[in-house]
Amino acid sequence: MKYSSQAVAKPYFIFALILLAGEILFGILMGVQYIWGDFLFPLIPFNVLRMVHTNLLIVMLLFGFMGATYYLIPEETERELWSPKLAIITFWIFVVAGVATILGYLFVPYAELTQLTFNELLPTMGREFLEQPLPTKVGIVLVVVSYIFNVAMTVLTGRKTVITTVLLTGLLGLAVFFLFAFYVPDNLIADKFFWWFTVHLWVEATWELILGAILAFVLIKVTGVDREHIDKWLYLIIAMTMVSGILGTGHHFFYMGAPEYWLWIGSISSAVEPLPFFLMILFAFTMARERKIEHKNKMALTWAKGTAVVAFLGAGVWGFFHTLAPVNMFTHGTQLTAAHGHLSFYGAYVMIVFTVISYAMPILRGRPYGNSEKAQKVELKAFWMMNIGMVGLTLALSAAGLVQIFDQRVGTDLISFMDSQESINGIYMVRLGFGLLVFTGLLTYVYSFFVKEPQPELA
Amino acid sequence: MTERITKSMAKNIYYGGGTFALLIFIALSFDTVHQIPKRSNQQNMTQSVVAGKKIWEKNDCVGCHTIVGEGAYYAPELMNVFQRRGGGDEAAFKSYMQGWMAAQPLNTPNRRKMPQFHLSEEEVNNLADFLIWTSKVDANDWPPTIEG
Predict the structure, then answer these.
(1) Phi and psi torsions of A420, nearest 5°
(2) What ipTM was reported for this prediction?
(3) Can you give the pLDDT at residue B4?
(4) Is B25 close to A123, i.e. CB distance below 8 A?
(5) Chain B, nearest residue to A169 by Cα
(6) Which of B7, B54, B139 is the closest to A257 by Cβ?
(7) What are the pLDDT digits (tens) for A333-372?
């Protein structure tokens, strides 16, 4: 650790992992309720489980991004963080607001929660992923603004690098597009249209800048490749991201009441969307091959390469499966969307958080060369368990989606949604099994940090 | 391939391409916002439809159902429930909705459960009006079949 203020990243990383454990746990509960509808009902209805599951994911990623930023910004700008104290205050405000919101979801019926939290002043609740009560939404804005302010003040008075510029652009985009969460027109179609400004332009544009910046930082550190070379790759990747991702929003406008031209624009730009992820694979593997140093923390590089590969599979390949308009006519609103959502969020964003935690956490704990070989062996097992688990559950959800399409949407012998779901029960069991594997993988990952370090040999 | 591209070229593609894409996106968004009222028959969006949407949001219906293909995938698509359960007849659909909402949760073991939301008769009618209005939106011929 070169700068003492980098230490503020540590609580962010720890809390991100705690939230991830909760997120997976609620995913497993949903997986059970999918098969046995009486499970936990009426104690926790499905919509509540899902809200907790998706909201924990979003908040977990924000904690992960913040931790990553606070760790890398001092090293990149070559100065201490503008205000470590503000970063710690922000941390606790975000923790309290996040926990209070989750408890609210779990213990107060949603309709009552809307009343308790002044939703009628400015109705924003009851929309997918943006279910947070108004005070939480305002809280998120305040936390994000103070975070960006802290980072910007550090960047402005320090060394400017391509990584800091890209990261800051991504963070500003994140903040700006979240503002659409406050705009809820009475017309459902207009509402959906602007809802995507937050949802799509977060995950398929601005967050990809954050992802690219973090990946580039870790690759510089663990491969020792020349910064100029890394910068070129970073620009190339985010250029392709912006060119394809912004107009790629159009693939959500095919069948929701928007005009026909989106069928073409969305299909064409989406066809390009796998490209930046493919470049990311080339980037990670080329840098690894051309590495100038042998960093003892091998797992950090493994996670970096893994992020590129699984992000390409989840976001690139699984996205492309159903992103052409004629195909989307049949896949829209099926389990195929869920399959793509799971592997892309995991591959692109959860894995980049693992990458930066695996690189930075040992250093923050006074192990500049990474965890011991023994610990890294355990971590490698966790890596494979989680990856196999996620790919397995994605394949299961894809199979479920295909059955659903042939049951309900193709041919003449159609059956209803509920009958179709019953016929998919066996596949949902497989999905649940892989989900349990992911959870075991995460526990193994956490355990790897507690593997006893070997005593230094007496020379 | 990448050897021939320099850092400044990549940088220019990022700023130039990104700005170009963003400008097209903004222009098309303006046009879309302009077209949505017509495609969604906004003139038929009565107070009851708007009240129905508020009830939809207040009870987080999208946390289990999909509507116009978006939402959770735990319960049926509701864009065309008016045709599926009401046969396109408003009075029939409303009386179906009153009975259906009152009967929740169904007492079928291990069937996925819909909670009881304790809506008034008027609120159920609002919700029905919202779903009827939604069913008439021009979504480029989606959903492909009555089963949604």
Answers:
(1) -60, -45
(2) 0.97
(3) 84
(4) no
(5) B15
(6) B139
(7) 999 999 999 999 999 999 999 999 999 999 999 999 999 9
User: What is the Cα–Cα distance from B73 to A244, expressed in whole angstroms?
Assistant: 28
Considering the domain boundaries, does residue A269 fall inside one?
Answer: yes
Contact assignment for B21 to A187 by CB distance below 8 Å: no
**Are the Cβ atoms of A36 and B110 closer than 8 angstroms?**
yes
Which one of A112, A145, A160 terminates a domain?
A: A160
Q: Where are the alpha helices (DSSP H) in chain B?
A: 7-12, 18-39, 47-58, 81-86, 90-103, 121-135
Give the structural domain span for B35: 1-39
A278 & A387 share domain? yes
Tally of structural domains, chain A:
2
CA B97 to chain A, closest CA, distance in angstroms equals 18
Chain A residues lying within 8 Å of B67, measured CB to CB? 188
A235 vs B contacts (CB less than 8 Å): 7, 10-11, 13-14
Q: Facing residues of B70 across strands?
A: B67
Q: Which two tokens stand for residue A110?
A: 């949603």
Q: How far apart are CA A364 and CA A7, in angstroms?
A: 6
Judging contacts by C-beta atoms under 8 Å, the chain B residues touching residue A242 are 14, 17-18, 21-22
CATH number for the domain spanning B60: value is 1.10.760.10
Is the predicted pLDDT of residue A143 greater than 80, yes or no?
yes
What is the domain range of residue A246?
225-448
Q: Give the dihedral of Cα atoms A214, B19, A180, A315; nearest 10 deg.
A: -50
Choose among B31, B60, B147: nearest Cβ to A47: B60
CB A427 within 8 A of CB A402: no
- Token pair, residue A139, equals 């809280």
Q: What is the DSSP string of A378-437?
A: HHHHHHHHHHHHHHHHHHHHHHHHHHHHHHHTSSS----HHHHHHHTHHHHHHHHHHHHH
Domain final residue pick, A145, A160, A175 = A160
Given CA atoms A297, A299, A301, A303 in this order, what sign does their dihedral have?
negative
Mutation to test the A interface, candidates B1, B12, B36, B48, most A Cβ within 10 Å:
B36
Partners of residue A193 in chain B, C-beta under 8 Å: 29, 32-33, 36
Alpha-carbon distance B68 to nearest alpha carbon in chain A (angstroms): 6
Do the chains contact at B40 and A188, CB–CB below 8 Å?
yes
For CA atoms A321, A280, A197, A90, the dihedral sign is: positive
pTM: 0.96
